[in-house]
Design goal:
The protein has three domains: 134 residues, Protein tyrosine phosphatase superfamily (Protein-Tyrosine Phosphatase, Chain A); 252 residues, FAD/NAD(P)-binding domain, CATH 3.50.50.60; 151 residues, FAD/NAD(P)-binding domain (3-Layer(bba) Sandwich). Helix content is 28%, strand content 23%. The protein is built from 15 helices and 28 strands. α3 packs across α4 and α7 runs parallel beside α14. The chain is globular and about 75 Å long. The N and C termini lie far apart (54 Å).
């Protein structure tokens, strides 16, 4: 913890852990306020976990979540009331401490002068200049009159898509002034979490510091985005800072909606409830798989779209293969609960997968969507919505359950002028250019092209967007087109993979001739590709602008 004192009654910091509560108690704090919504990061403790730890330590706890950049007057008033009613001194936290400090600044607007607010927050290491402008303007952020920063290209999101497109663009135009906006400290190789959950990869191999991956010469604005003002060519950051651009690339990924499943957040990581969709939970998957000698293992898949549509069943296959090798498969009842109506969306790969379903004795349950979960009781309730039938509910017992959460666009995207009716960034599916704003592009999981949301898709999209942005700078029309390519290495057993590669409409787009690697069949070659070749390609090629084996299709300039 890096505790920063705002006043005698309030200190703040970035994210803390449950074990820090006892330390806060020893330092004299009597209450803790959490201003960070659950689910912002893969390794973030839930507020329920934090509240329980606070109670054990003898601290009062208040959950007052604030979406980045969306600090309302009502929330500030509630924070002011909390500071009055909670026993002091109070400790507040969010991701970095900025939201908590912003809340305090707005809460004190009628009680303290702007000069005093700025002095107190600056002494603690927080720049509240933007908030001061907001106070001075009666609560309205003067984004059209104050220019805090300006870049040729601004990229929102420092994940696989954001770093890759920055590197690809920098390789084409080395002198371009590029900035990446992302608040995260750690960059994750998320395709590796399936392998962590199977005991193949160590968790640490899937994570690197964000600072080590930002391309040389690219600015890193370590902040969350609050809003977009495309008509003013501006992005508003958490704390009301304004960043202007000539061209904008939007790729913040998607949101994992853990809280959409009743009871899930409270039981994740215990009671046999796990998920390979979170860095800190994938090792628990492996722990459960190793320990299960008999009983019922349930694997869920929510409605589309989701990140890597094959990942839910990958967990099932690898777990079943481990039980098979351990000689306990016959003792385990495997249930695959799929909210959709097919095993896999591209029919060419289904026969090979069905053979493994039969081999492992797994039971396929289609149109079953996880509604709620009772961890201590080890019961999961599903809504069953079969075609031409009224929805029903079914509750199943489990000894182990691997849950994949429903997924959606981030909240700040959903409410922005960039989104379509479903909340995703609205782009032309070939050029990846925004349909309304000509100087905005999008790639990765957040945009609405009908392709698979995978890292392989982002790897293909990055040079396409870089090529088209570079062409636009040169006064040309789009030069490269996206065919919907995505790849899903379906890990059907340890040592073999069905390498699904396809584009728009389920058209097969194999990277290798069939005589080299037939992706519709399980092969050892595909496993070696996933285990040994793809990770270094990700870290050392894709994120560094080296576009190996990528040939974007050409499009006619408009």
């Amino acid at each position: 913890m890096e505790i920063k004192k705002i006043t005698d009654g309030l200190s703040v910091s970035g994210q803390i852990q449950p074990e820090d509560m006892e330390k806060l108690k020893r330092r004299g704090f009597r209450a803790v306020v959490c201003n960070r919504p659950d689910g912002e990061a893969a390794d973030q403790p839930t507020h329920e976990e934090m509240e329980q730890a606070a109670k054990v330590a003898g601290l009062e706890f208040l959950y007052l979540p604030v979406t980045p950049g969306m600090v309302t007057e009502e929330t500030a008033t509630a924070f002011r009331q909390a500071l009055t009613e909670l026993p002091g001194p109070v400790f507040g936290f969010c991701r970095t401490g900025t939201r908590t400090t912003t809340l305090w600044s707005l809460a004190m607007a009628k009680e303290k002068s702007v000069v005093d607010i700025l002095a107190a927050t600056k002494a603690a290491g927080y720049d509240m200049t933007g908030v001061a402008r907001r106070i001075a303007n009666g609560g309205v952020t003067p984004t059209d009159s104050v220019e805090d920063a300006k870049h040729d290209v601004v990229i929102v999101g420092g994940g696989a898509a954001g770093v890759a497109v920055a590197a690809s663009l920098k390789s084409r135009k080395p002198d371009l002034d590029i900035a990446i906006i992302d608040p995260a400290d750690i960059h994750y190789y998320q395709p590796g979490w399936t392998m962590v959950g199977a005991g193949v990869f160590e968790p640490a191999t899937t994570a690197k510091t964000m600072g080590s991956l930002i391309p040389r010469g690219v600015h890193w604005l370590k902040s969350a985005v609050a809003a977009f003002e495309p008509k003013n060519n501006a992005v508003i950051l958490d704390g009301c800072r304004v960043v202007k651009y000539d061209r904008l690339i939007v790729c913040p990924g998607l949101k994992l909606d853990w809280d959409k499943i009743e009871g899930l957040v409270e039981t994740l990581g215990k009671n046999g409830v796990t998920s390979n969709y979170r860095y800190d939970l994938a090792p628990y998957t492996w722990e459960l798989v190793k320990g299960l000698k008999g009983g019922k293992a349930v694997f869920t898949q929510p409605p589309m779209p989701i990140k890597c549509a094959g990942a839910p069943q990958k967990a099932m296959y690898l777990s079943a293969h481990n039980w098979e090798q351990a000689g306990v498969l016959k003792n385990i009842d495997i249930q695959f609960m799929n909210a959709g109506g097919v095993l896999f969306g591209v029919k060419d790969y289904v026969p090979a997968l069905e053979k493994y379903v039969e081999r492992y004795g797994a039971n396929l349950n289609f149109f079953h969507n996880l509604k709620s979960i009772d961890g201590p009781a080890k019961k999961a309730t599903f809504t069953v919505s079969k075609p031409d039938s009224e929805p029903t509910e079914v509750t199943v017992d489990f000894d182990m359950i691997h849950v994949v959460p429903p997924q959606s666009a981030p909240d700040f995207i959903k409410v922005s002028p960039l989104s379509d009716a479903a909340g995703w960034v609205d782009v032309d599916q070939v050029t990846l250019r925004h349909k309304e704003y000509d100087n905005i592009w999008s790639l990765g999981d957040v945009m609405n092209a009908p392709n698979a949301k995978t890292a392989a898709a982002a790897r293909m999209q990055a040079p396409i967007v870089a090529e088209n942005v570079a062409a636009d700078i040169d006064g040309k029309g789009p030069q490269a087109g996206y065919n919907g390519y995505g790849s899903c290495p379906l890990t059907v057993e340890k040592g073999k993979i069905v390498l699904a590669e396809f584009g728009y409409g389920g058209v097969l787009l194999p990277s290798f001739p069939k005589w080299v690697l037939d992706g519709t069949k399980p092969t050892r070659k595909a496993w070696l590709l996933k285990e040994q070749i793809l990770p270094p390609i990700y870290w050392k090629a894709m994120l560094r602008g080296k576009e190996w084996m990528i040939k974007p299709e050409k499009v006619s300039a408009k």
